[in-house]
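Researcher: If only I could read backbone structure tokens as easily as an amino acid sequence. Walk me, if you will, through where the backbone shape changes along the chain. I have put the entry right below:
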Amino acid sequence: MERKRVPLIDMQKVEGLGEELVKACEEWGCFRMVNHGLPAELMAEMKVVAASLLDLPDDIKRKTLSAENYKGYRERNVITSFFEALSIDDISSPDEFCDRLDASVHQREIIYKYIKAIHDLVGLLGRKLMEGVGLAGDLFDGWDCQLRMNKYHFRPENIGLTGLLMHSDPTFLTVIQDDENVDGLQVVDKYSGQIIPVDPVPDTLLINVGDIAKAWSNGRFYNVKHRVCSLEPKTRYSIVLSVLGPKGKVEVPPGLLDSKHPRLYIPFDLKEYMDVRYSTKLHTGGAVDLFSTKME
């Protein structure tokens, strides 16, 4: 049967929420959330703040450049000529980012409120995912997280081109506030390999499962491949909270291993994986597979 739409999950569901989340991670590698707890007003205000910061002169935005891979300001380049992004690389201390951009008191207030609300949601997600796989605990407690603001400069001459190339996320998961007015996100179906459009739904948040989740879950979770295409000549914004990984080793919990489910990935740390992914340019899931036990 052809699959046309990613799952829509009610985060206020009382019974079976964990199991439903796990099934979506396994079968789709992505899903939308309703009743997620972020006020619509805060989401709208955060989009305005993101747009205003991304509209700053390039020389101001370059003050947040970083020498580390996947961090700091991402400028438009030859490969992604109409995509740029600003990132708060450690959401526990956003002040340096705000200081470098000379953010206003109001902008800072919205950023702090948004980070608090979305991090609370991530905590709920982590606990429910643990329930869904039959484990106990707060999965994402103490994990590194990054908040990224994206801008796609789509123009008439860009129609049909890819704003962000096909990739899987180098994270455990990402929580995406996509643009409610401009679509373009597309995912690869796990079973058919077909490209499925992920149209925006107002007041929802989208989850994408990344490479780290595939390794942590011993291959159960699907690290969904996706891209953003230019479908209409409009500026597109998205705000992404990336749950990167633990401060220690990424490894399969003992509770997910038994005689029928042997360990498929060796333990590794996040920086080690990021360095491998960057150096090999394996951006569609191949980098994490280099840590497979079959490669030992």
